């Protein structure tokens, strides 16, 4: 195997990537020689989700990856992680000792892509709009701690928070806080379709077929003002129906870069290839996958049933048989590389043990086998998801304590159905909004949580989450965060399964591929450029 390694400085939440040189040929040309990037992400408009790219609605990694190219936020996460830095803002900061008043000053001369000036009132409009609409995606909850927004002149915005929140600057870096043009967005309702009007590094031309975005053409915005350095004139993000079709396009040179989601088999093939015209880039990831429970559903309402599942499921087998080196077992909703992580599920349940699970159910007089359906999406997290759920079914059924069936659905219907509470048990992935332990806990446990979970623990909601957010030093916040993880392991409203790595494959005439994914799996297409083949 030919191998070359690029070492970058280690940053918070991101380690140095490894590049493996692999085979292939072609030039990955697109329209007007755009750099063409492949993805298996699907972007569909439907009756339940007619506005997939409205920042007041969008709340998954795929749609956010479109919005991050086209909208500006006051703050942004630096390449490699760390504290948020000003983006549309010239400066931002807490102006009180209690972390309840946050003030930002906009850059001078900031404009939307159509040339209209951006003012503090536009920022206020954009954020208040998300809070007013309260889309059922739950994304507005990221901003729900805002009490009022004050503006002073054209450039100063002041956020008055309901309670202390040291993570608020991170939240202002997420697309739900993106600045939109009030002329193009109604303040009271979502904007249907795939158009986006903002002031980000690119403008978007959406190519749509059968209510699906099949190709997103990003053209450099000449009026963009921010800290990002755009290293290309045009990028196309092309959506493929599956990983095999995306891999074939890379081999033929129809695309230059391949992103999520590759299959484990594709990754192994690229790792073992001997030619040198395609680089496989491997990075530590902050993606997690978990089972969620509708704790009001009769089949899993008893926490003993959920505890028994936690006692039976073999994460090690799941990872080794399905994902290989691309993932590792996870025993908390907080990943191993994030400050505050605790192996709470392993501490409580240890190794998989059917006898212990049987004793739990027997003591609670639960009749076995417990009948369940595990639901999953078959077109959003990659083709290995089906294999993962087939193995979960086998593990649970082999225990003799469960009678499990599985059912896969398309993401366009799966996501709304999950939020409506139609599934008793469901599989989901989570790419963090920002790399802080709070973002692996509050979105699932707080009021207005993103998965619509009815589980409510007063100690978590009223004491531990607010307590952790008062701590600007996140290491100091770890005590509260670890207590939350202990309670989650006891009650099992969610069951963590595995933590994944990140992969990108790129032709060797493309530069910047190793910086195209940041620590939160966000695409940074502005980093891509053209260079000589290595």
TrEMBL record:
Keyword check for Transport: yes
Domain (Solute-binding protein family) ranges: 84-449
First and last residue of the signal peptide: 1-21
PROSITE patterns in the cross-refs: PROKAR_LIPOPROTEIN (PS51257)
One Pfam family here: SBP_bac_5
Location relative to the cell: Cell envelope
Keyword Ribosomal protein: no
Keywords of the record: Signal, Transport
Family according to the record: Belongs to the bacterial solute-binding protein 5 family.
Protein name: ABC transporter substrate-binding protein
Organism whose genome encodes this protein: Streptomyces vastus
